[in-house]
Every structure is written in C-alpha cells, then in structure tokens.
Amino acid sequence: MANEREVSIQKEMAKLRNEFHDRLIVELEEFVAYASLTDQEICRTETLQKLYEASHRLAGSSLTFGYSDTGALLRRLEAALDAILNHGHEIDVASLRRKLDVLAPAVSIPVELRTDTDPAKSDTESSHTTPTVAEKLHIYVLENDSETSEMLKTGLSSFGYKISTYTSIEALCDATSSKKPDGLIIDIAKEDIAKQTLARTTQSLRKHGAGVIPIIVVSEHDSFAEKLDAARNSVVAFLSKPVNIPALESSLEYVLKPQSKSPYRVLLVDDDVYSMEHHRLMLDKWGVMAQALSEPAKILDVIEEFQPDLMIFDLHMPSCTGVELAEVVRYHTHWVHIPIIFLSSERNEDRQMSAMMTGGDDFIVKPVAEESFVATIMSRSQRARQLAELMTRDSLTGLLKHTEIKERLGHEYSRAERNNSVVTVAMLDIDKFKRVNDTYGHQTGDVVIATLAHLLRRGLRTTDILGRYGGEEYLVLLPDTEAKNAASKLNLLRKEFEKVEFRHKNEVFTVSFSGGICQSDKVKTLDEFLEQADLALYRAKERGRNQIVLSDDTD
Fold first, then answer.
1. Residue 187 β-bridge partners
2. What is the CA radius of gyration of the chain?
3. How many helices (H) and strands (E) does the chain have?
C-alpha cells in the first residue's frame, strides 16, 4: 500500500492533468482561429512570434502530460515558425495554414492520458519516500585489538551511536546475516587478510539479501593498491590509523547523511504554471523540497529566503529568457556555487550549448521520464551541497567558518524582524582550553574542539545553524526559538559533553563548556545582538564555568 502522502501527490497530479486538459482545448481553439486570418495578418512578425511562443510552450507541456500526438503536431508548427523567424526561411502561408488546420481535430478528439501515474495503481506501486533515521544508529565494528576496539566503542558511543564489536570475520558475517546494521567499520590492519575480510563481508551481505550497507575501512597502510581494493569492495570511506574518533564520526555522518540530511531544496522558475507544478510534484514525491516561481522578477528575494541547493529555469519565458535570468543570478557572487539547470522543450543543440555557456550547468529536454529527472536533480543537488560545504566550512569541525556564520547571523536576524518572529544566538566556549593544549598537546586539543562540534551537530535541529567563531569558540543560531528553550537544549548537550572521556596516552580526562544566550527581540541592533550573547558568556565564566547564562540574567 502506498502511503498517504504519495496518494495525496498522485491525486494532485491527476487534478493537474485534468486542469491542463481543459486549458489545452482552449488554446488549441485559439490556434485554429489563427487559420482564419488573412495572408497579410498571418505574415506579420508579431503574429508569427506569438504563434511560435505559444506552440513552443504548449508542445512541451503536451508531451509532459502525455498528449503525444498533439505535442508532435505542435512541434512541427514550432519548427516551421522557428525556420521563418530565426533562420530566414520564406513564409509559406499555405503550409502554415495546413499545420494550423491539422490541429483542429485535436480539439474534439479525446487524448488518452498516460496511466503510469494513475492513482488507481497506487495500491501496487512502491513508495519513494525519504527513509527516517533511528534515534541511535547501530554500527558493527570488526577489530581484533581489544584496546582499539574499546576506544572505538567508547568514542563513538559518546556521539550517540550504538556500537557492537566483533573480533572475527565469521562473527561479523553471522551478525550481519541475522540483523542488518546501519554501517560497518572494518580494521584491515593485517595485509594478508585485507582482501578476505572485505570480500567475505560484501559476499555475506549479498548472500543474505541485506542490501548495500555502508562500509568504512581503517588501516595501518595508506597505499593506492589497498585503497583500490577497498573501492572494488564497495567501501565508502578509507581512514588511516591511528584512528581519529571525530574524523571517523564525521565520515559516518557523511556516509549516513542521505538518510538524515535535510531535504534538497530546488527552485523552479517557469511561466507555464502547469508544467512547473507537474515537475514540482514529481520532486515532492521523492522527498525533494521544491518551490515554484512563475515571476522571474522576484527571484533574488526568493533565493535569499529559500536558500536553494539547485535552480531549474525554463529557457523561453515572455518577461525574460532563462539565460538572461541565469546571468542576473550570477551577478551575485555568493550564489555562483548554486547549479542552474535549464528545463525546456528546446531541441536545437546550438541553443542548448549557448545556454550552457552563459551560466547553465545542465540541460534537460522536455518531456523527461520521472526517475531520470529526479535522479539528475538529486545527484546535482548532492554534489552542489558537498562543494558548498567544502567552501564555507571549517576543515577541523565541519561547521561554518567565521565569515559565513556572521553572514548567516545577519540573515536570520533580518528574517526574524521581517516575519515578526525570534531567533536566539548562543556563544559557546570550551572551559580552560589553554590548559588542555598545554597539558596534552594541540593534536589532542583539536580532538576536543572537533568532538564538541560533532556533538552539537548531532544534538541540535537540522534548522539550527552552527559555526566555529574562533579557536575554541562556537556560534549557534536557533531560528524560531525562545532563549529559555535554547538554554534548556544546550544545557542537555553541556551535561552530555562533560561526560565524554578523552584519552591521551594512559590518561583519561573530561572537558566542559560555557555559553551565553540572547534572544533577537531583546535588542535593537545586530551588533547589540551578538554583543549581549558575548557578555552573557563572560558572566558564565565569572560564575564558575560549565553553565549557560541568558543575556537578561544579570544577577
């Protein structure tokens, strides 16, 4: 049985097709009316241009909604008009009239709709919803060194993972056969068993129908041959020993993020609302958050507010072309990283290439099969998000860099003002961090910094925004959250962090952090907003550290 959400989308699709059918009849009648014009009237450039624009738009939409015969007729009319308007061909009035007359029967002859998305089939169709993440992801670890095994179990457990350790390939295969884990960590320290370990693990998974389980390899070696063998055995990440727990956790998060990451955000711009809504519903069905825009002039404000991972532009629009729109967007350097895909019924390869050369990243020709369309959009969005993170994020923590988090602070403060809502900012700082560096070294200090960063990422909402403000300082933005609620959540994370055990040689130690919080409607300016959070942090330090203080708590 399809879930309720998918059935709802299918009903919306069916309603949209019916609405398009009604519009198609009206527009085809208008085409037929053109056939009654005089030779002089039909030869006017403005008339030919209107015919061309209408036939281009309607041809693509007709094919998208399954009206293949009508779409083909409109394509032939479009091609004839294109030859006259753009390639200098002489006007053959008689030929144009014949093409317009051929469209006349299409008005009265019912056109069969495609049935591949019929809601009636929903009971037998598979669901394409985004999987949910369990509160604790279960990871199996193959490690025969007891000390390393305990370190992995203790370290990853502090990040909220459930860890099961195994000392032999046989035990690991038996475990994966009975219950599928969310991920595997395999130590291939011994060169002679490396291939056997990976091969037997992957074979066991296939044998028992467990599907593809993400595998991370840790190894004492760092050779190309070993990494190549790992790639051939479906390994998704390769780390060298000694194992850096925050780096390992970061790899796990990256590997598992298709399950946990917030939905990809796609902006659709098209003057044809039926075609645009059709593609929006396609994406929605597969868990992509798509926003439709039919007025290109509003795009700058929409991008600022929506923050898309990818944009899809129609190529031919009356107010401006997709190429012109792309050029306007590219004027803003902080949006240069956002891919732009042209979605159009334009089949001329020279025009497609020209569009790509002036700001586009890909070109999709209508009509396009649902799975092909969605796969292209999701893969492009994933890659764009990865590249954006590399450009804007701190390499040690994975959090936003200083400049980026300050920019987001300004954006969220302005948004809260516009929407009459609130945003809370928290300034966090690791207590007595200099002592950690002096006592255990900067490498261990980096582990502490990264650990807190990962704990915050896992413990806060996907809508919360995290940045590394300084060496051991963090800035946290919590949209639509009052200060008292933010303090409650951060206090839970503070208590969790102080329990994390760090190791240096044979010594085990713990660390704490302090925080200052300010709510946006308690201040009058952006500068004051950040300043009050910083002052609250200072008071937390004065009061003994390891606590969260609100800006209006001055006692």
1. 218
2. 29
3. 21, 17
- Residue 427 β-bridge partners: 475, 516
The full DSSP string for 96-116 is HHHHHHHTHHHHHSPPPPP-T
Q: What are φ and ψ of residue 189, in 5° steps?
A: -60, -35
* 209 — pLDDT class (breaks 50, 70, 90): low
Residue 228 CB neighbours (<10 A): 10
Q: Which CATH architecture has domain 138-260?
A: 3-Layer(aba) Sandwich (3.40)
Residue 503: phi and psi, rounded to 5, are: -120, 135
Q: State which amino acid sits at residue 268.
A: L
Q: Which of these CATH numbers, 3.30.43.10, 3.30.70.270, 3.40.50.300, 1.10.645.10, describes 402-550?
A: 3.30.70.270
Fill in the amino acid letter for 366. Answer: K
pLDDT in tens, 310-358: 999 998 888 889 999 999 999 988 888 899 999 988 888 888 888 888 7
Q: What is the pLDDT of residues 245-295, one digit of tens each?
A: 767 877 787 777 654 457 899 999 998 888 899 899 889 888 899 999 999
Q: Say how far apart CA 67 and CA 367 lie, in whole Å.
A: 11
List, in sequence order, every residue forming a beta bridge with 238; answer none if it has no partner: 217
Cα distance between residue 24 and residue 176, in whole Å: 55
Domain layout of the chain by residue ranges: 16-115, 138-260, 265-385, 402-550
Tokens 């990440």 locate to 237
